[in-house]
Write a structure and sequence with these properties.
Layout (H helix, E strand, L loop, with lengths): L25 E4 L4 E2 L2 E2 L5 E2 L1 E2 L5 H7 L8 E8 L12 E13 L6 E4 L3 E7 L1 E4 L4 E2 L2 E2 L5 E2 L1 E2 L5 H6 L9 E8 L12 E13 L6 E4 L3 E7 L1 E5 L5 E3 L17 E5 L5 E4 L12 E7 L8 E4 L3 E16 L3 E4 L3 E9 L4 E4 L3 E5 L4 E3 L1 E4 L3 E5 L4 E3 L5 E3 L3 E7 L2 E2 L2 E3 L5 E2 L2 E6 L2 E5 L3 E8 L3 E5 L3 E2 L2 E4 L3 E4 L5 E2 L4 E3 L3 E12 L5 E2 L3 E10 L23 E3 L10 E3 L55 E4 L5 E6 L7 E7 L10 E4 L2 H10 L4 E3 L10 E4 L4 E4 L9 E7 L2 E9 L5
Parallel strand pairs: 1-8, 3-9, 10-17, 12-18, 19-21, 20-22, 21-23, 22-24, 23-25, 24-25, 25-26, 25-27, 26-28, 27-29, 28-31, 29-32, 30-33, 31-34, 32-35, 34-38, 35-39, 37-40, 39-41, 40-42, 41-43, 41-44, 42-45, 43-46, 44-47, 45-48, 47-49, 48-50, 55-61
Antiparallel strand pairs: 2-5, 4-6, 6-7, 7-9, 11-14, 13-15, 15-16, 16-18, 35-36, 51-52, 53-54, 54-55, 56-59, 57-60, 58-59, 60-61
Length: 722
């Protein structure tokens, strides 16, 4: 056939096809098999997928279009060298494939198999649990004892660990504060314990661990701690206490201070001690041993029912309280700053100079005993005692002073005192128990005063600011007795009273026994606290004949005149006269004894005038519509027994209203009764005329009334001869 066939002559046209040939397999590269990532599960099995072995992928690998080849596969995770199965976590880990091929056309191909693929094993979540901390007794540090005994295989498996895996847990712990912001050594319940865990085990790397960060445990109060520091030292320094268990905050129940130590309590803390109010049950020595001493400079120390038993207590600041007793055996001192509050009794002894009280409040009884000095108060402080008070002061075997002269003192129970000069001032009622003084007794109360059973070697001066003065036992006073009850009543009705010195009162006198001039109840009399002195005329050395000066009154029976005589103003003027109108020689032939009284100060200041006959007229206060006038008259010694009339010319201030208005002057006893026969007011003389005074008639009082003004005239006789 063909265009040129005619040009050829074929020899044989019967050709038969009887030759042979090979069809060789086609090369086929298998691909597209993948393995899935998985979370660690403790084995090397991989999940394999052949969905990626598509016809297109096979054709790209050499498969003839239309052919049929099938692929199935399984996989196993292998180690980095693909030398062994590997269950462990890793990224792009080799997955060894085991493929099974099939299909009608598989025989036409020489297959290059896909032997591996890659996938990840990611860490499995594991929660650690079962770690516990033990409760402990306070020891001054925050270390916790931790146990991992509860971290069992079962607990770990419950937290996510694969059965058969190996994970180990070790842990330490530290007690923390409520906010878990800092270590905290202090007593508490269910306190947070921060855990520091160390994890191990061959399978640990296969897990993402949620660690157990905390647990809870209690720190209970230490029963007692003993000072082991030196002779002195800081309370808030752990190095000074056994085991470092510093008794700060509320961590220790009982504090033991051995003898011969002097511990300073303040807010200065050495870590891990903390400043802040300290609460303990008691402070003492061990057993019956001699206790140590405490110096309190600042801060707050609260002691419970166990109270305080100390050799010494010195407070310059801070707040100390005790729900029990306070017992101090050797030295005690406070200043104006700081307070001590004792719910129970307080027994305080001092052997080192003055015993100085500051702000001390005692709910029970108070006993103060100073064997080497005075008992005094720091300025601007207050002593408050709900129970009875017993105060004793000595120095070298003789009594010393007890001076509680601050305004805000409150002594609710009986106050018994043994001392030299004793001063007690209170803001309320004052009830004395048994009082013995070798010197003066000075009392000032803003409430009722009961003198108890008192023996006073010196003078007794009392002021109750318009409250009553009474007694429960006998009163013995060897010096001046000066009682000022203001508008209150004075009642001293004990038959065993014995007052040998001058006795003066201001107040409404009910009944007084044992006073030197008292033969009958006193009458209600002047209320005044204005001071004045009633001088006695004397002739100074080197003075011209007839010149006079003044000297203080000496109480009847005194051996020598005192250097300074107490005021006879509000006290002396108030000494009341008997209500009796006993007759004596009537006034006769008066002897003139005028007094130049018109020079007295009209505004109420004291003025003194002396007549030529030695009669001293002392204007203590001029009368007005609001105030009672007070005039004190001192007669020369012996005048009362002469039997001749003496004219006492009164100051113009006492009678000026009568002069100005023409009103009459009415002269009576202070209780309104008529004057006795031996004294009368003479209008023409503008004065009083006295005759022979009956025994015991002086001192004597006359009330002059002019219109609505009144003046009390106190007449006394000098103890000195002219």
């Amino acid at each position: 056939a063909g265009n040129d066939a005619v040009n050829y002559s074929l020899v044989n046209t019967n050709i038969v096809n009887n030759t042979s040939a090979n069809i060789t397999p086609k090369a086929l590269t298998l691909a597209g098999i993948t393995a899935s990532n998985k979370v660690y599960d403790g084995n090397a099995t991989a999940t394999v997928s052949t969905t990626g072995v598509t016809p297109a992928v096979l054709q790209a690998g050499g498969m003839v279009v239309g052919d049929n080849i099938t692929v199935a596969s399984i996989g196993t995770f292998r180690n980095a060298g693909n030398t062994a199965d590997d269950k462990n976590v890793g990224t792009a880990k080799t997955v060894a494939l085991t493929n099974t091929l099939g299909g009608t056309d598989l025989g036409n191909y020489t297959v290059t198999d896909q032997l591996t693929t890659n996938a990840n094993i990611t860490p499995k979540a594991l929660t650690i649990g079962g770690i516990t901390a033990s409760n402990k007794v306070y020891d001054g540090n925050a270390t916790a004892t931790v146990s991992t005994a509860g971290v069992t295989a079962a607990v770990l498996q419950a937290g996510g660990m694969v059965v058969g895996d190996s994970i180990t847990v070790a842990s330490t712990g530290t007690f923390r504060n409520a906010g878990n912001t800092a270590d905290d050594k202090n007593v508490g319940t269910a306190k947070t314990v921060a855990l520091t865990n160390t994890l191990g085990g061959t399978d640990l790397g296969n897990y993402t661990v949620t660690d157990q960060l905390t647990t809870n445990a209690n720190i209970t109060r230490l029963s007692s701690v003993t000072w082991t520091g030196g002779a002195t030292g800081n309370w808030l320094d752990p190095a000074n206490w056994a085991g470092g268990a510093v008794p700060d905050l509320s961590n220790v129940a009982r504090v033991i201070l051995p003898g011969q130590v002097d511990v300073t309590f303040s807010t200065t803390a050495v870590a891990p001690a903390q400043s802040g109010p300290v609460h303990v049950d008691g402070i003492s020595a061990l057993g019956n041993n001699t206790p140590g001493s405490l110096r309190m400079n600042s801060g707050s120390l609260v002691v419970g029912d166990g109270g305080l038993n100390l050799a010494g207590l010195n407070q310059t600041g801070g707040s100390l309280s005790s729900a029990g007793r306070l017992n101090v055996t050797e030295a005690f001192s406070q200043t104006s700053t700081g307070t001590i509050n004792v719910t129970g009794d307080a027994s305080i002894a001092n052997q080192r100079g003055n015993l100085t009280l500051g702000n001390l409040h005692v709910g029970g009884n108070l006993t103060l005993n100073n064997s080497n000095g005075n008992i005094v108060q720091a300025s601007a402080t207050a002593l408050s005692v709900q129970g009875n008070s017993s105060l004793t002061a000595n120095r070298n075997g003789v009594t010393a002073d007890v001076l509680l002269a601050n305004n805000d003192n409150t002594l609710s129970g009986l106050v018994s005192v043994t001392g030299n000069n004793v001063t007690i001032q209170t803001s309320s009622t004052l009830n004395l128990g048994t009082v013995s003084t070798d010197g003066d007794l000075t009392l000032d109360s803003r409430g009722r005063l009961d003198l108890g059973t008192s023996s006073v070697t010196g003078k007794l001066v009392a002021n109750t600011h318009n409250n009553n003065i009474t007694q429960t036992g006998a009163l013995e006073v060897k010096g001046l007795t000066q009682l000022d009850a203001g508008t209150g009543t004075i009642t001293l009705n004990n038959a065993n009273n014995h007052m040998t010195g001058t006795f003066t009162t201001v107040g409404i006198v009910g009944e007084v026994r044992g006073a030197p001039m008292t033969t009958a109840p006193f009458v209600p009399i002047i209320q005044t606290t204005e001071p004045a002195r009633l001088p006695v005329p004397t002739t100074p050395t080197g003075a011209a004949s007839g010149a006079t000066t003044t000297a203080p009154i000496t109480p009847s029976g005194a051996t020598n005149p005192p250097a300074a005589q107490p005021d006879t103003s509000a006290a002396a003027v108030s000494a009341a006269a008997p209500t009796s109108t006993t007759s004596s020689t009537p006034v006769t032939a008066p002897v003139a004894a005028t007094s130049n009284a018109s020079t007295a100060n009209a505004v109420g200041e004291a003025s003194v005038n002396t007549s030529s006959t030695g009669v001293v007229v002392n204007t203590i206060r001029a009368p007005n519509q609001q105030a009672l006038g007070i005039v004190a008259v001192l007669l020369p010694k012996g005048t009362s027994s002469v039997g001749l009339g003496v004219v006492i010319s009164l100051p113009e201030e006492a009678v000026q209203t009568a002069t100005q208005t023409g009103a009459s002057v009415k002269a009576t006893l202070p209780n309104g009764n008529p004057l006795p026969a031996w004294i009368k007011y003479v209008e023409s003389e503008k004065g009083l005329v006295i005759g022979s005074v009956p025994e015991g008639g002086l001192p004597f009082q006359v009330l002059l009334t002019v219109g609505n003004q009144r003046t009390v005239v106190q007449i006394s006789e000098s103890q000195f001869s002219q």
